[in-house]
From TrEMBL:
This is Uncharacterized protein. Keywords: Membrane, Transmembrane, Transmembrane helix. The keyword DNA repair does not apply. The chain crosses the membrane at residues 29-48, 60-85, 100-120, 140-162, 182-203, 255-279, 285-309. The keyword Membrane applies. It comes from Corynespora cassiicola Philippines.
Length: 333
């Protein structure tokens, strides 16, 4: 029994004789601290969102709210699964290392699919809220691209995943090869930019004709910059803005800039994670990979929460319906 216990804890090393198998105290402690902070943050955001929805929970959630709730569930599920692998099982065998990279790929891919599905749903709500999703070509093409793209990359990542327990230091290293890393980065950037560009394009009539062009309520410098980038001529409607239109115009500007900033914020951790994998040739310490994935997923959920901050279900419906109507009126004008 003593021999078996020793073989499980130590591995033969030609240089130093014996090395300890598994993660050291620094790796476990760092992961635990990060995981607890992320879990606390997600719990606070989920509690805030539940309080914000209020009575809407009894009447059921619409599709976009279900997607946001699914993000929270998947994120917390990833934290639990990672904690079991890292702190419970200890990343001490090759099989456990394989489980660690599989958890990362499966949860990361699922979170990305739901996250971009939410951004696609926002585009659908602005473009054709009253139209069935299955009759909206943009929604159909977007969903096929998201599910097929990330699904294919995730399957390839699971098939060609890298996992091993080093005989030199006994540490578990996991990752994915460059032939999977590069497609992930390209797919993430292309879909993100495409959804954001489509969203802004659908709002062009409001940028061009909307009440925010009225001298009584001038557009902000930031919004004027967007007009210059899109080469739009401001064409005032020739009507005085009431307080309701002013409030709508202000919310429109906030929505526009949140969408653009959120698009960049979502891409940042993905780019950083992929660059790290590229530099390490797909062999990263398991506890580092799990910690970075935890931060990446939590960051994405926080960004989505920020994009929908301050809106209840009824307000979301009114805003989307109002924007759709004003967009249609502007296009007809």
């Amino acid at each position: 029994m003593k021999i078996l216990a020793r073989e499980k804890t130590f591995a033969n090393d030609d240089i130093s004789g014996y090395v300890r198998i598994g993660e050291d105290e620094l790796g476990r402690t760092t992961f635990v601290i990060v995981a607890l902070l992320c879990c606390f943050s997600l719990a606070c955001l989920l509690g805030y969102r539940s309080k914000q929805l209020g009575g809407a929970l009894g009447g059921g959630l619409h599709y976009a709210q279900v997607l946001v709730a699914s993000l929270f569930v998947l994120s917390i599920g990833f934290l639990v699964a990672s904690a079991i692998v890292q702190c419970g099982l200890g990343l001490s065998t090759r099989e456990i290392c394989h489980s660690a990279i599989s958890i990362c790929i499966a949860f990361y891919g699922s979170v990305k699919v739901i996250m971009f599905s939410f951004l696609l749903e926002r585009t659908h709500a602005i473009r054709a809220r009253q139209l069935s999703r299955w009759r909206d070509p943009i929604w159909i093409v977007g969903m096929i691209s998201i599910v097929f793209g990330f699904g294919t990359v995730a399957i390839c990542g699971l098939i060609w995943s890298i996992f091993d327990v080093s005989k030199l230091d006994g540490r578990c290293r996991i990752g994915i090869p460059l032939k999977v890393t590069i497609p992930i980065l390209v797919l993430d950037i292309v879909i993100n930019i495409s959804l954001t560009a489509t969203f802004i394009y659908l709002l062009r009539p409001l940028l061009k004709f909307g009440g925010i062009t009225n001298p009584a309520f001038p557009a902000s410098r930031a919004t004027r910059s967007i007009r210059r980038i899109l080469r739009l001529r401001t064409e005032p409607l020739g009507m005085e803005l009431c307080s309701t239109n002013r409030t709508f115009s202000k919310r429109f500007e906030v929505l526009l800039w949140r969408s653009m900033i959120g698009s960049v914020l979502i891409m940042l951790p993905t780019v950083g994670n992929v660059v790290a994998f590229y530099n390490l040739r797909g062999r990263e310490l398991a506890w580092v990979c799990l910690t970075v994935c935890t931060l990446d997923i939590t960051w994405g959920v926080c960004v989505i929460h920020w994009l929908t901050l301050g809106e209840t279900s009824q307000e979301e419906d009114k805003r989307a319906s109002g924007m759709s109507a004003q967009t249609l009126s502007a296009e007809q004008a």
